Amino acid sequence: xxxxxxxxxxxxxxxxxxxxxxxxxxxxxxxxxxxxxxxxxxxxxxxxxxxxxxxxxxxxxxxxxxxxxxxxxxxxxxxxxxxxxxxxxxxxxxxxxxxxxxxxxxxxxxxxxxxxxxxxxxxxxxxxxxxxxxxxxxxxxxxxxxxxxxxxxxxxxxxxxxxxxxxxxxxxxxxxxxxxxxxxxxxxxxxxxxxxxxxxxxxxxxxxxxxxxxxxxxxxxxxxxxxxxxxxxxxxxxxxxxxxxxxxxxxxxxxxxxxxxxxxxxxxxxxxxxxxxxxxxxxxxxxxxxxxxxxxxxxxxxxxxxxxxxxxxxxxxxxxxxxxxxxxxxxxxxxxxxxxxxxxxxxxxxxxxxxxxxxxxxxxxxxxxxxxxxxxxxxxxxxxxxxxxxxxxxxxxxxxxxxxxxxxxxxxxxxxxxxxxxxxxxxxxxxxxxxxxxxxxxxxxxxxxxxxxxxxxxxxxxxxxxxxxxxxxxxxxxxxxxxxxxxxxxxxxxxxxxxxxxxxxxxxxxxxxxxxxxxxxxxxxxxxxxxxxxxxxxxxxxxxxxxxxxxxxxxxxxxxxxxxxxxxxxxxxxxxxxxxxxxxxxxxxxxxxxxxxxxxxxxxxxxxxxxxxxxxxxxxxxxxxxxxxxxxxxxxxxxxxxxxxxxxxxxxxxxxxxxxxxxxxxxxxxxxxxxxxxxxxxxxxxxxxxxxxxxxxxxxxxxxxxxxxxxxxxxxxxxxxxxxxxxxxxxxxxxxxxxxxxxxxxxxxxxxxxxxxxxxxxxxxxxxxxxxxxxxxxxxxxxxxxxxxxx
Amino acid sequence: xxxxxxxxxxxxxxxxxxxxxxxxxxxxxxxxxxxxxxxxxxxxxxxxxxxxxxxxxxxxxxxxxxxxxxxxxxxxxxxxxxxxxxxxxxxxxxxxxxxxxxxxxxxxxxxxxxxxxxxxxxxxxxxxxxxxxxxxxxxxxxxxxxxxxxxxxxxxxxxxxxxxxxx
Lengths: 791, 167
Ligand code: FES
Ligand code: FES
Known about the structure:
The complex is a heterodimer of chains A (791) and B (167).
Chain A: H1 18-22, E1 38-44, E2 50-56, H2 58-61, E3 66-71, H3 72-78, E4 104-105, E5 111-117, H4 120-127, E6 131-136, H5 143-147, E7 162-169, H6 173-179, E8 182-190, E9 193-194, E10 202-208, E11 213-218, H7 223-234, E12 241-244, H8 260-272, E13 276-279, H9 282-288, E14 291-292, E15 295-303, E16 309-319, H10 332-340, E17 349-357, H11 372-390, H12 394-401, E18 410-411, E19 417-418, H13 423-433, H14 436-448, E20 452-464, H15 468-474, E21 482-488, E22 494-498, H16 507-519, E23 526-529, H17 547-574, E24 581-584, E25 587-590, E26 595-598, H18 599-608, E27 622-627, E28 635-647, E29 654-663, H19 671-690, E30 721-723, H20 744-761, E31 770-771, H21 775-786
Parallel strand pairs in A: 1-13, 8-31, 11-12, 16-17, 22-23, 29-30
Antiparallel strand pairs in A: 1-5, 2-4, 2-6, 3-5, 7-17, 8-15, 9-14, 10-11, 10-13, 15-16, 18-19, 20-28, 21-22, 21-27, 24-25, 25-26, 28-29
Helix pairs in contact in A: 10-11, 11-20, 16-17, 19-20
Chain B: E1 9-16, E2 19-26, H1 31-38, E3 57-60, E4 63-66, E5 79-81, H2 83-89, H3 93-102, H4 111-123, H5 130-136, H6 148-165
Parallel strand pairs in B: 1-5
Antiparallel strand pairs in B: 1-2, 3-4, 3-5
The structure holds FE2/S2 (inorganic) cluster (2 copies).
């Protein structure tokens, strides 16, 4: 194996794929066309809750270019209804879902009919001529109202808006709360937000009746999983469905599950037997992409007389829209809240209560970091309040109460298995890196002059790379196994196909680095491909920060096999024992370092001049390895973020001055890509803390469904994000073992901001427990603090 | 109603990336759709269709334009340059290299628009500070990178070009 000095593992190499993107040669789904392609436009419900009385498509069919109007009945003839089922949560209420609504709609934006026409513009024109008679029904929007038994039930045939409830608690929690020296409480509200990938969801489906094959090109994260979903819904053999995810313009979990409109497009292609393309436009994205994090949480932290932490208790009401999203459901976000609250700290007793409720808003999905930003914000705000109560600096208070490295592996009081996490190292890396103690002095000096600055720190714990136990027990057709196939080609290039998927992270390229390092060739000699459900080896795909964790392991295993085979062939050719040979920088060398032949030469002989090989030598030039992490339910991973903000008490405006991130990333394969993942994630988390929220009126109408109204962070509001990474160097004899970083940035950013803002406004006697912390909300809490209630 | 239907058409002639193009187009068609669908220039992307995200930024008669806010017929007689043209001319080769080296892109969807705006910044007389770069780029949305590597790449090129300009 290559020595670590020249190893592509740990090298900040730029991605080879990037060259295509900077020249405009990226190929996203909308860039693909097909002969006789038609375009679809959806008619979506203008109401959050209504009965569909009558649909008249006759006028629409008269419009130029209109080919077909499909309603629920047409779709139902070829496409089965479905529901999210998870055997781990057998009590989950999960109403039947239809790709196109039958009789009743349950959120604004729900598909009601599809117009198919020669061009997209014509489809949209014709859609305006479909007449629908509606009977609007009262909408349930607020999470707490949805949980109340007095609120009307939104699903017929159900007697409650409750989707699911559960509780995790230690036997002594009540006693502990009774006997605590202090209990600090806070009620939190988290606003809905969504992922806003810049490339909107796009699909091109084509059904060829002659061979019965459905070919779907789609902007998505999990081609193999989709293949099975489309096959089952449309009654096709799985072998007859081919899903290709070409370049994907951002995904973030928004493109992880199956959407009703996308299933409907596949059905339309089967009905019309022609290619059908559909892209949601930005306005539709806001009412049809999954949203996330609509939580109302009551939280408590209990302290003893020494101000040590005794317990955390949280009660979460999580509103998910009308259905658990298909197929994986939406519950995970709530589970993160009740499983991970308090996770970085030592304490004894715990209670987490979760109520998941239905409401008339678009479904909640599994947006990047899922519930981890919530559990982190709850924990870290409570820790700050406890530190305040104890009269301690929040930095010192945290440091004293972290779980120590020697405690791992262990179970948290919330019954979560925690593997080794570098909490203290991450903490010190940020505190020292940002020189927080010096910032404290600056903050104090500025306060004298009436300038309100705040420092926030937030420690987060993530559960990444969920293993097969979860999906097996859940009964989900989701593979927690991934694979890598390597093919040594003439010229010495290794073509690497992986089941993981790529949408900007650089997972593909990083797997190539691992393969190159393990084989002993240069990273540029490895070509990585992914995203095609037929040509890539079968596997899961990328979500939950698992891409690099799964892909590096599968790639490392396959590369070891191929390496052995190359050396065996070389040994037979050179008439020396394979063990006396090594591969370094693409050369087959003796262990002493003397070069014998290049991998390219060997590949050429093996492919074109087998006559030169001994008769008993049959080189194996392709190697495949599969990997599924059977030993762990997931890997826990940790990091710390810190924000330095300035609050303008007159305008409520928050300026983020500095933001730092440390993360325990295991063995880092590519520091350049890692840093940009952490930064991009942190900026998304900052967006959700300060700007982003899907605002609805009481009728369930989205009020800010444009990119001008739903505010996302732009370059000018964001400072440089300081990365203080905590890495463990690669042991060249073992698998690389990186920890995924896809979600880390998001997981801790909003908590750090929330704490920083609260630190800044503390001198005013104000505090805030709502995300996003918009100027309006800040002014509100500041005003209330300034004007004590009359009387 | 969304305005005149597809059968209301005009013939336009314009120069796109140096090539003379003469085409009939529905008058309501956006320039970005014309470039992508009619000319196959798919390097220009659509992220919002309402002028906010900057993904569709191209150059028309030397000025930066959001091609989702312009009709194809408005480009009649104009000189249009897209990322494909900027690449072919070599004008932004240093910027493209810097974007790759700095990993100033993840999914790459925002990249052609970012490059067009960055090219504008580099051609301007603005101060070269990171804040000035951030301010200038603040009409281009990127969900993936967190912007920093984009600022790094532009800063690198600004420095390198200034170095070259120094006698
Ligand atoms: S697509 Fe033109 S600005 Fe967004
Ligand atoms: S790289 Fe994905 S939006 Fe910028």
